[in-house]
Amino acid sequence: MKVVKVFKENKQFTLFSILALIVVGVAVFAPQIAPYDPLDAVMLESLQAPSSAHPFGTDKLGRDLLSRVIFGTRTSLVMTLCLVAVIFVIGTFLGVIAGYFGGIVDGVIMRIADMMLAFPGLVLALAVAGIMGASIRNAIIAIVAVNWTKYARLARSMVLRVKKNLYIEAAVVNGTKTWKILLVHVLPNMVTQMVVTAAADIGTMMLELASLSFLGFGATAPTPEWGLMLNEGRTYMAKAPWLMIYPGIAIVICVVVFNMLGDSIRDVLDPRQE
Fold first, then answer.
1. Residue 129 DSSP SS3
2. Between 11-28 and 65-101, two packed helices, what is the crossing angle to 10 degrees?
3. Domain 2-31+58-273 is classified in which CATH homologous superfamily?
4. Averaged over 176-196, what is the pLDDT?
């Protein structure tokens, strides 16, 4: 009943939760929804305009664009969720370690974070991806290397605040092991804010991954990925504009849905920030 009440009282959260579930559903059931194999090339049908047979048209190799956009949902969503999860774990772990132990450990981690923040994020990600080579895995590593600092700094600030509570001091005096203090007393008091931050970052991370793929440092052909599809379609922008229009619309819809969902989750879990 409490869950139902939350959905009733937060209409924006309900709406964007439904839209997000639809996006996830498209990703999960892509093989059943897509009318064609996204990798099936038919050169005789290359660059066909949208029609009843191919609602989104075809690309330069005659592959059905609707099928590639649908399968691109799976690729982009899985990549984004993996990326956010990795950034969340690494950033939170380093932030907790820095905030709890302080001293040299805190100094080293925070100076590295400051050094990473001194460079423009996308430029640094491009440099890392360029050195490692174009692939989905390397694109994820490049963005993780740039964005973990946000979570580390947030986690550190929250740990420093939680450390001042008397129950932490009591646990230390009683001889409670450090790992138990962190798991039982520290993390539960900060996990909500960290999850809210991660949820709000899904749309941003999806856009960054698409940007790297568009620039040639992310997914590689023939993977059906939206950023890569934009890159492949830009050559034919004048002749076949649908090659960029439909993947672009898919990116915009997903980014807006997950950004708004993140804001809604923040309002539900942390009403003080409204």
1. helix
2. 120
3. MetI-like (1.10.3720.10)
4. 84
